[in-house]
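Justification of resources, computational component.

The compute hours requested in this renewal are based largely on the per-chain cost of generating structure records like the one below. Each record pairs the submitted sequence with a full structure-token output. That output is archived, and it is also reused by downstream analysis tasks.
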Amino acid sequence: MCGRYTLATPINDLVEQFDIEEYPSSISASYNVAPTQEVAAVIAEDEKRKLEMLRWGLVPGWADDPSIGNRMINARSETVAQKPSFRKAFKDRRCLVLSDGFYEWRHTSDGKQPYYIHMKDGSPFAFAGLWEIWRDGEKIRSCTIITTDANELVGEIHNRMPVILSPEDYSLWLGPDFKEREALTSLLRPYPNDAMEAYPVSRRVNSPSNFAPNCIDPAA
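The structure output for this chain reads:
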């Protein structure tokens, strides 16, 4: 699964890299983004790429209670197109969840050891995400991150990883045409590990109250 990640890249750099046309004046950097928080995501709406803050944990439109989103932070690539919780969003509302690194935990004799995984060049990237709108006296725009089998690098730590999209696939993923369903599902694969690196970090990331830059400092 993907349960924590980072986003500290300045917004102007995100705007340039992801061709965003509408965006807030700033977003807060976090080195420990956690479920139920507002997260930065790119959606295609009104023929524009927009950067919006969405609640992490997808709330389907049919849900009676928005707390269901607490259990919907991830969607498995193998079932996302068929599962009732996600299939409508997969068809109509795909998004890019922006990140510059993520955490996974490895089981050791001393307990779970967190690792930080990122691109070797430090560049930001996009998770394949879905988003939804829920209304019941209030309007909630929420999202989930799609996961897949781990690549060789992440597989040494955990058996799953978030789907990371290549820049050349952003337009297809955000596009409105669902006739390309097979092409869309083909994107839900492990990212090549040769561009990535991982190292152990402090267990301070276990608490979402810790989100300072020292979260990604190498473990002693």
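Residues 5-216 form a domain with the hypothetical protein yedk fold fold (CATH 3.90.1680.10). The longest helix spans residues 11-17.
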